[in-house]
Design a protein that fits this description.
Thrombin, subunit H; PhoX family phosphatase; 7 helices; mainly beta; 31% strand; binds calcium ion; nine-stranded antiparallel β-sheet; disordered N terminus; binds MU-OXO-diiron; single chain
Length: 584
């Protein structure tokens, strides 16, 4: 068996040192292997898919997508299924090198659209480890053009209608799929995060050169300008370089102003039914969703915790009106209910503030579509970029990564609130991040009051002696920055994945590459379990049905990982104990 760590009986492995190299490391007694890489065929008609120079557009919707992120494992009638997000596309990796990351035509844009979204796939264990079951009837790609139904309070609202969809109830695609979640009824939740980055505005053509009539001013061309509501969501004239709006008109906000309102939602997918149309749940609010952590209140109502990953935005929860009963219909359980935003008080208490017409002065569809504005109206607490939320199944406590905040005091977003230092966000320049934890009063996730503390403040005690040294459970042996992905396992251990600076110098000296650590919720002890290849972020974590394999995602690796030559390929990996023991 893997050796136990002296003084840390909770960890059945020997912690590993920080690394700065180009591959993955796990503790002695453990092994890792690649399960699926960007471009790997899910169907045999895509067997020849070649990513050498970014890959062709043909069959790009039949292969494993790029930049794996949140994922969940489902055991269904003896089949091991994985649903996994493909958050974004690295344009310099996906397009021919000569183009420098700029799409040259509509086909390039279509390829980028195909290689993002979600993969549902069956995997199985053979003599060489885990592999994709090619042509499994469960295999499916959901991408930026897949039809998706809209339900809940904002479905059909005028702000969701477009010329192509006058009903406002059928959207093409789910985009920027970041974190994940799962429902008690066995479906997958994928969360739309930086959707604004795909939208731009073309400048309207100059008006015809006409001599203005005597005594009237010349009419200048109005530059494209976002509305205050669009600006609060980061929608502006320029996208982040995908150029969709130049080749695919619905991403041009100056001509299709409502299209961005159709993104920023939590989407439900049935992994067991490849023909089921995915569903956007407007009841869960619209913001830059990180993940969706689902649990049940004491009385059986459904509770969903959700972070909005933007500096100075908020933490949310949803509580359904109806209760979940196994086997009973689940319609409305993610839509009919109340959204709340969190207020953290400096005395380590907190409240969930309901977002209702009475508290916000907005109507219900408006609260769902412009949730950020509703949360500002009730005075929720601005946070240092809430990333993953995860529940400790043994303690009725909830953890949220607050990844970092380099812009304290700078207005995070047009129309956003001021971002002073506050209880759970105690540092002026937050380079390192922290994990906040709260316990709902009475152990009931529907409770409107809670008590909070900081599980860890990351820092660097080899560089600083003040608050930037971090909390007492940070030491030279477990340095990390920017906690992001997080999950608590069946033994109650908290796994922390990082998406931070990997310079290994200055403020970040001794932290090495991005990594995954394990923490004991009770003692606070944190130790390093995995290091990723240089340039990557470690994100996405789930387990096989028998918990003898842990699946981890390696996003945007550098170098030529994992092939050793050619382009870097984001991959899903499997980690096992050499003695076939349980892994978490
Ligand atoms: Fe996609 Fe906030 O991470
Ligand atoms: Ca993340
Ligand atoms: Ca992050
Ligand atoms: Ca990422």
């Amino acid at each position: 068996p893997a050796p136990a760590l002296a003084g840390g009986a909770r960890f059945p492995f020997t912690p590993i040192p920080a690394r700065t190299d180009g591959t993955v490391h796990v503790p002695e007694g453990y092994s890792w292997q690649v399960v699926a890489r960007w471009g790997d065929p899910l169907f045999s008609d895509a067997d020849l898919y070649d990513v050498t120079d970014g890959g062709p557009v043909a069959k790009s919707d039949r292969v494993f997508g790029e930049n794996t992120d949140g994922m969940e494992s489902f055991s269904y009638r003896g089949h091991q299924l994985i649903a996994v997000n493909h958050e974004f596309a690295n344009r310099k990796v996906n397009l021919p090198a000569a183009q420098g990351g700029t799409p040259a035509d509509a086909g390039d844009v279509r390829k980028l659209q195909n290689l993002q979204g979600v993969t549902v796939m069956e995997i199985a264990q053979g003599l060489t480890g885990w592999a994709v079951v090619k042509d499994s009837p469960f295999n499916r790609r959901i991408h930026h053009n897949t039809p998706i139904r809209v339900v809940g309070p904002a479905a059909g609202h005028p702000l969701l209608r477009t010329e192509a969809d006058p009903t406002g109830t059928l959207v093409l695609g789910t985009i920027n799929n970041c974190g994940s979640g799962r429902t008690p009824w066995g479906t997958y939740l994928t969360c739309e995060e930086n959707f604004n980055s795909y939208f731009g505005m073309t400048v309207p053509a100059e008006p015809a050169a006409e001599k203005p009539a005597e005594g009237t001013a010349a009419v200048a061309a109005e530059p494209a300008r976002p509305t205050p509501e669009q600006a609060r969501y980061g929608i502006g004239p320029e996208d982040w370089g995908y150029d969709y709006y130049k080749w695919d008109a619905r991403f041009d906000v100056s001509t299709t102003p409502n299209e961005p309102n159709r993104f920023g939602w939590v989407v439900e997918i049935d992994p067991a039914d490849p023909n089921a149309i995915p569903v956007k749940h407007t009841g869960l609010g619209r913001f830059k969703h990180e993940n969706a952590e689902v649990t049940l209140a004491a009385d059986g109502r459904v509770v969903v915790y959700m972070g909005d990953d933007e500096r100075g935005e908020f933490l949310y929860k949803f509580v359904s009106n109806g209760i979940y009963a196994p086997g009973a219909p689940t319609g409305g359980l993610l839509d009919d209910g109340t959204l709340y935003a969190a207020r953290f008080n400096d005395d380590q208490t907190g409240e969930w503030l309901p977002l209702t017409p009475g508290t916000t002065g907005m109507d219900l569809p408006g609260i769902c579509i412009h949730t950020r504005i509703a949360a500002s109206a009730v005075g929720a607490t601005t946070m240092d970029r809430p990333e993953w939320v995860s529940i400790n199944p043994f303690a009725g406590e909830v953890y949220c990564s607050l990844t970092n905040n380099k812009n304290r005091g700078v207005k995070p977003n047009a129309g956003g609130d001021a971002t002073p230092v506050n209880g759970p966000n105690p540092r002026e320049t937050n380079r390192y991040g922290q994990i906040v934890r709260w316990r709902p009063r009475g152990g009931d996730h529907a409770a409107e009051r809670f008590d909070w503390d900081l599980y860890v403040m990351a820092g660097n005690p080899t560089v600083y002696q003040d608050s930037y040294a971090g909390s007492a459970n940070i030491n030279a042996g477990n340095l990390f920055n920017s906690p992001d992905g997080m999950a608590l396992d069946s033994s109650g251990m908290v796994w922390i994945q990082t998406d931070g600076k990997d310079s290994n110098a200055g403020d970040f000296a001794g932290m090495g590459n991005n990594q995954m650590l394990a923490g004991d919720p009770v003692s606070g002890e944190i130790v390093r379990f995995l290091t990723g290849p240089k340039g990557c972020e470690v994100t996405g974590l789930t387990w096989s049905g028998d918990r003898r394999t842990m699946f981890v995602g390696i996003q945007h690796p550098g170098g030529s990982w994992p092939d050793g030559s050619g382009l870097p390929r984001s991959s899903l990996i499997a980690i096992r104990r050499r003695d076939n023991g349980l892994v978490g």
